[in-house]
Amino acid sequence: MKIGPDKQNWVKDPIICLAYKGEGSLLKQNDWIPGTVWMLLGLGVSFRSLNLKLGSFASPGPGLMPFLLGVGLMICSLFVLGKSLLLTLGKRKGQQQSIWADVDLKKVMVVVACLLGYSLILERAGFALASFLILTILFKTVGSQKWTSVLIASIFAVIVSYVVFIVVLKVELPPGFLGRI
Predict the structure, then answer these.
(1) Has this prediction a pTM greater than 0.85?
(2) CB-side exposure of 100: number of CA atoms within 13 Å?
(3) What residue spans define the domains of the chain?
(4) Which of 39, 33, 32 is nearest to 86 (CA)?
(5) Tens-digit pLDDT profile for residues 52-108
């Protein structure tokens, strides 16, 4: 997929465009390297989750979710590896470009810092507040959205996550200091 003047092919989703800037293909010929890393990570997560009880979909064990996420990661990496292979086979010589050429390192660092901060404040602040804060920061800095859109999207995402994980799946997430009031 190209990002450029053709508005039909513009990728407007900040999650997809997370670390890319400027014009160019989202997938590069050299993407077999990160594709392989993600494949190995998915394989490792799936393999390690087999040590936990998988259970069934009706009665999931603690290893089911990591196993499914590992399998999903492997499936996604197959798409990256396949596209990279097709680009490698069809690429003309002399048009090599670094895999890091279109990466906006500032946005990557913001995401890494937010994830680290999220892991540090999750227990104290609780799921709802910590999730709201991280989503607000990510939507504003990475997505470059207006404040009203950022706040509405963050609140909506937290409510949906709360309903799915706490109400429907009955997962115990940290309530934080707001839950103790």
Answers:
(1) no
(2) 3
(3) 2-90, 105-179
(4) 32
(5) 888 877 888 888 888 888 888 888 888 888 777 777 666 654 555 556 667 777 888
